[in-house]
From TrEMBL:
InterPro entries tied to this protein: CinA-like_C, CinA_C
Record's protein name: Nicotinamide-nucleotide amidase
Alphabetized SUPFAM superfamilies for the sequence: CinA-like
Keyword terms, alphabetized: Hydrolase
The keyword Nucleotide-binding appears for this protein: no
CinA C-terminal domain segment(s): 6-158
Gene (name only): pncC
Taxonomic path: Bacteria, Pseudomonadati, Pseudomonadota, Betaproteobacteria, Candidatus Proximibacter
EC code(s) of this entry: 3.5.1.42
Keyword presence, Hydrolase: yes
Amino acid sequence: MNPNLETLSAEIGTRLLERGEALTTAESCTGGWVSQVVTAIAGSSNWFDRGFVTYSNAAKADMLGVSKKTIVRHGAVSEQVAIEMAQGALQHSRAQWALAISGVAGPAGGTPEKPVGTVCFAWASSHGLAECETCHFPGDREAVRRASVEHALHGLLQRFTPLLA
């Protein structure tokens, strides 16, 4: 595993264990890669509840409760869908923290408005956090997906560090 991903995952686990809290994930373009990275850490069952891989729009709606109207209005790759994914993951798990990822990893599927490398992220918590952002990553499919995993984990650590201090 990438040493940076391992370090991020272990730090997230330490912080969650300190609070007795857990993480859930809702992934689309990363296909469960965040969940794989997290579960590569020994003892992660103490702080990782579950992961949802919702690649299709139907899965986003069925498993996470993402509004079909939101998908039609904004597209699956949007901050609006990402935040609904994160909030849905919280609602359908026992976790207190969620991260969500939806993007265009390529090599096809991009549009002028959402070119390949466009990835939307959301982080939510039972403490009231609900934040999202869009990034544009260069490279091929694997590079976009890898950068997305790292960004999602780093973003989570940034967001809950002040709350867990």
